[in-house]
Amino acid sequence: xxxxxxxLLFSIIPILLFSQNNGVVINGWTNVNTFKCANxxxxxxxxxxxxxxxxxxxxxxQVTDFDCRNKMMTSxxxxxxxAEKYPVLNIKFLDFDKAPANKFTALVEVKMMNVTRxxxxxxxxxxxxxxxNKRLKFSDFNIVPPKKMGGMIYVKNDIDLLFSLAIxx
Length: 169
Fold this sequence. Notes:
This protein is of the alpha+beta class.
């Protein structure tokens, strides 16, 4: 029952966070806390995306634009993603299909730190936006989650990528 509630919350939260906006948030966990890093420049970009025709979106995000609302956490996050050497996180839509009940399925290519992975992501339409989320792993991108204080505090391998794209109707 507890797992069903958690899954329901992760399905509803992106819709509430991102209605009528662009947004990218990466949520993660440590053994003692959680963290949430958002890309505010993308949120405020004003871009509107189209999913019709042959041109699907290719979203390029500057790693240094992610803010975890904690100076040390933001610095660590940017260091983990090696922002100096790999300044861009790229999300490219390869395929996009309508499913029943205002749902959509997309094949998305995520490129982070010169490693590319493909994921199938389900989206919902909400107030002129497409909202989706996907559970990824740091290890998908050859990233070893960091440890602090001799391993007493460690970042878990799972991260959630939550995003919303403002769309043309």
